[in-house]
Structures are given as C-alpha cells and as structure tokens.
C-alpha cells in the first residue's frame, strides 16, 4: 500500500463533451425541450493551454458516480443509423477525469492530474450519403479524422528528427 501524508487529500472532477459537426456540446448538460443545446467555445488560458469555456466539471466521490455520469453523457450524445451501423456515434467525445491534489488546511493545489479518454466517430464514405445532414456529418468526421492523422504524423516526424 502507498502511504499518503495526512495533510494531502484528493478531489476528483469529471467532464464530458462531444464535437459534432465541428461544434462543441456539453454532454453533462441536461437536455431541454424548450431550447437548443448550447454550443461551447474552445479557448486558451494565459499559458496558451486549450480549454472548453463553460464546460461543466462535476465533483464525484467514487468510480461509481463517474460511471453514472459517463452513462448519462452517452445518452445525450449524437447517434444515427448508417450503412455500417444501426446506432453509430456521429461525434467525437471526450470524457475527462481531473484529480486535484489538495494539501494543508488552505487546500493548496500543488498538482493537478488529468486523463482524457477520446471516442472518435467512425469514418464513412461520403458517396454513400445522398445529401443533407448525414452528408455534412460524414464530411466533417472525415475532415477531422484526416486532421488528427496529420497531427499524429507530425508528432512522429518530430520524434524521428530530434
């Protein structure tokens, strides 16, 4: 067992959002029939680190609470029937777990750890889509997957050229 000093505690926070047709949506925001889902913005903090503005971060006590939030968010995600899958995710989703290391009586935060799990939407041939919303979705998914592939290739290239 790992021994942790008595003055150190941990606080765990969860967020879950999707990228659908190049827009960001909070999957932990309760859906409302009265209004459209609020789109979120990608911003940078003063150090140049990206973050999603107005994204809900929910404090959890244990893994069971985090699991429940994951299931709630999955219900709010954008799904549709495609040629390959009856219930296909039409968005990329990012589920994040943030652990704050709290120290002392004033709850000083000397360290923050974060793990983000990404579920990428499946690629689809645009010619299989006739028109409308499915064609737009397929085009956006394929463009973002292509961009991700280029980012990974650039990272690999940079590692090889050290």
TrEMBL record:
One Pfam family per UniProt: Kinesin
Predominant cellular place of this UniProt entry's protein: cytoplasm
Nucleotide-binding listed as a keyword: yes
The Kinesin motor domain, residue ranges: 1-162
Keywords attached to this entry: ATP-binding, Coiled coil, Cytoplasm, Cytoskeleton, Microtubule, Motor protein, Nucleotide-binding, Phosphoprotein
GO molecular function: ATP binding; microtubule binding; plus-end-directed microtubule motor activity
Record InterPro entries: KIF11-like, Kinesin_motor_CS, Kinesin_motor_dom, Kinesin_motor_dom_sf, P-loop_NTPase
GO cellular component: mitotic spindle; nucleus; spindle microtubule
SUPFAM superfamilies the record matches: P-loop containing nucleoside triphosphate hydrolases (SSF52540)
Any one GO biological process: mitotic spindle assembly
Subcellular location: Cytoplasm, Cytoskeleton, Spindle
PANTHER family in alphabetical order: KINESIN FAMILY MEMBER 20B, KINESIN-LIKE PROTEIN KIF11
Record-stated family: Belongs to the TRAFAC class myosin-kinesin ATPase superfamily. Kinesin family.
Official protein name in the record: Kinesin family member 20A
Provenance organism: Mustela putorius furo (European domestic ferret)
Native organism taxonomy: Eukaryota, Metazoa, Chordata, Craniata, Vertebrata
């Amino acid at each position: 067992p790992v021994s942790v000093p008595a003055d150190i505690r941990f606080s765990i926070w969860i967020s879950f959002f999707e990228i659908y047709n190049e827009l960001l949506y909070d999957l932990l925001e309760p859906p409302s029939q009265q209004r459209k889902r609020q789109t979120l913005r990608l911003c940078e903090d003063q150090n140049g680190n990206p973050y999603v503005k107005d994204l809900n971060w929910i404090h959890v006590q244990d893994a069971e609470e985090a699991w429940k939030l994951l299931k709630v968010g999955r219900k709010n995600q954008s799904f549709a029937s495609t040629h390959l899958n009856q219930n296909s995710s039409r968005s990329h989703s990012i589920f994040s777990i943030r652990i704050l290391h709290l120290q002392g009586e004033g709850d000083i935060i000397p360290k923050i750890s974060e793990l983000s799990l990404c579920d990428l939407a499946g690629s689809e041939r645009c010619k299989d889509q006739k028109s409308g919303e499915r064609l737009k979705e397929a085009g956006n998914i394929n463009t973002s997957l292509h961009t991700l592939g280029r980012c990974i290739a650039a990272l690999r290239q940079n590692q090889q050229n050290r």
